[in-house]
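<context>
A single protein, sequence plus fold
<entry> Chain with its tokenised backbone below
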Amino acid sequence: MSYPYPPLHEYHQLGDVFVGGIASHSFIVSSPIDFTRNPPPPSSDELFTVTKNYQHILAFAFAVKEINENPWILPNITLGFHIHDSCFNAKWTYRETMQVISTPKKFAPNYKCDIQNNSLAVIGGLDPQISLLVATVLDIYKIPQLIYGSAPLMNDKTPGLPFYKTTPSETLQYMGILQLLLHFKWTWIGLLYVDDENGERFLQSMSELFSQHGICFSFIEKSPKSTVMTDIPEKFQRGLNIHDKVMGRKANVCLYYGESYSVIYLRWLPVLADLDNMTWKGKVSIMTAQMELNAFIYQRIWGTDLIHGTLSFTIHSSDRPGFQQFVKARNPSRIKEDGFIKDFWRHSFDCEFPDEVLVKGKGNICTGEEKLESLPGPFFEMSMTGHSYNIYNAVYALAHALNAMFSSRLKHEKVNRGGLKQDNQEWWQLHHFLRGISFNNSADDEVSFDHNGELVSGFDIINWIFLSNHSFQRVKVGRMDPQVPSDQGFTIDEDAIIWDTWFNQTRPLSVCTQSCHPGYRKKIKEGEPFCCYDCTPCLEGKISDQKDMDDCKKCADNQYPNKKHNLCIPKDISFLSYEEPLGVSFAFFALSFSLITALILGIFLKHHNTPIVKANNRSLTYSLLISLFFCFLCALLFIGPPKKVTCLLRQAAFGIIFSVAVSCVLSKTLTVILAFMATKPGSRVRKWVGNRLAHSIVLSCSLIQAGICAGWLATSPPFPDIDMHSTVQEIILGCNEGSVANFYCVLSYMGFLAVISFTVAFLARKLPDSFNEAKFITFSMLVFCSVWLSFVPTYLSTKGKYMVAVEIFSILASSVGLLGCIFSPKCYIILFRPELNNKKHMIRKNT
């Protein structure tokens, strides 16, 4: 069966075995088919050639040339090929795929008219939809297909298609994009993606991945899948909306996901938006590996600085020695088998060949001597691009798989001068050898497929730079390598990047909100994406020591925040020490007053036979002075670091000794009252007057307090404790009283004795002065009660060492009150007015 019209473009090279190729070289713009007549073939005016894709065909031919010249690969067998053009069109893709697996010049599906010309495998296509269309045909015949572009999205309708992808894993590219954004701290970006299934998959995958790492979208827009500018009014409005979204948002970074020809549309958008303002100024573009920097002929005059400074992920490639010489040797007048070269030449150099000039009557004449190296980068590149490198590796992978398959059959198959007979081969068995293929190509890059049929390789990060003379450069600035540890896989040379001139060569920022400095935390704005937030200071007791913290954190128990709430400072150890002024002062006063007490006791002992000493029970006076002496020394137990012994003793000792002192005062007061009552005739009180009653009162009152303290120490004794929370800046070392109720019980009992002593002394205050201490005791107990009544609220309102200081002050003050009010008048008489210290004077005064 013959064709109604021949293929638009095809390139054949004879050989013993053949490899098919489906290229994507031209777009067809034609009117709808009405099925009323046989449709005519498209004319040259209906073709838009993507000139840059011609390099894919050259890479195919160059790889075949190298293999045929290499005696170690497929020895005595030459490799041929059939390359056809898909035209980015489903109808033409099906047609050309059938032609690739059929006899040239004949269209006979399912028939092997000339078996030696049938392709054993097919390399193609460039875009996912084209690859899927090719696969649906090849799957019927179990012919291997090696894809050099993006793999199609597999679903329930496309099960088990035999793809071998010479592109790295798409997941690796996702991680590379994420690492790039995180490296530059770009958390507020825009996304423009192609309107197809692969674009939707990219959006879904990246949305989830970005949200997990604090990146969100300022805008998300779809770009039309068709690139040829038909339906201008609709695309004008859509392009205007997209351009306004990109330029109107404050996100300075825009991520583009598209197909190989998507850059053509990106260059259209500024034109559609504003014919006088073709610019993406102030935006950093990040493009995925699927996209190539290409252009149509009518975009020749458009400035290439539109995408100057773009960062692009590209499939890792190595420029092959000899490839540029092979490309430079191309000439449309000398290579008759190449059916692509004339259209490529015409669109690249904007010229017409002599026979076409006569027909069309217009255009410059193509001489065939034009220099390919003079073409701008968007039209053609002399060095091998990523997609071309994939094709190069795909041809070599097939050659090595064939070599392995032929070697395994040498013992069983007949070999002739032309190679193995194809009619004896089951080419579907080639799948087994492709899955296990692994070799180093001529660039010493390892080529192998993983269990998913994907090439084990990485991505290069390229910086697109356009110079003032409109020349184009690709500068490799980074790498995403899957064959090294994950924490070392991403590398970037920031100093090598040339940014858009808008940024004045400083690192661009792209955030919704400026970073929250340490000491602040993020507070999400209501109704806004999580990348947009306010900065609010950390609460008391918390810090943030990094930028953009979601929440402030507490310091460790032994630390506290500084004033800026960005640093934890070690807390000071706090206790009432002998090394600080307050502790030294208390120790000095305690020792001084205890010495004074001892001196007074010595004076009284020296003058123990004088009337003033004998009056009011001399033994009680000695007991009171001794108890006051120990009261002053008791204060020393509260100074210094808390220890187990001091914690156990200090409150109990304080309570018992003070109870003895107050009991002595009470006993002395009762002795005065009973003495005067006993002087009355017939009084029965005489039998109670004497040392026995006085000592009984002191002993019984003291034993009650001792019992309370013993019960306290037996049930819940005080112990050394560390308090890290009462004060912000200090760790308080102190004694935990064990039972607060017992502590206040001791105080209450002591207060009870003091109140009774004050009451009794107040009632006896008018007795004759010479024998009466009641007036002095009244003042002393008034001081005592005032001190301890003030102690309770003050004690409760202070913390740490100052709480201890309040208790020491109360001990010293109340003891000084007793000592001063009771004994200072007597010492005055003994030392300075001895003439008054006689029995005669006292009797006279009493009379």
